[in-house]
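New to this. Please check this fold:
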Amino acid sequence: ADSSEKLRQYGLSHIHSHPVLITRTRSCSLVKPPQPPPVPRWKLLRQKKKTVVTSEPQEPVVEKPEEYVEIASLFLNYKLNLITIPTNT
């Protein structure tokens, strides 16, 4: 429901196709991630390793890298006539 609402804000719909051209892709965001708080120097000495005891071997968690795309579309500033859906039925 969120994606269809977002499309309706721009005057587009899932019913009508809208071709786009992917002009650029990248794997990092535009916003710089926040810096972690500084660690006191005394905590850097003799750091303890976290040990987890399990009966099953653990598989490393593979995080999917974030991907971002830049698109160009003829319909970027095009508005459809919005259809009002009655909510009292």
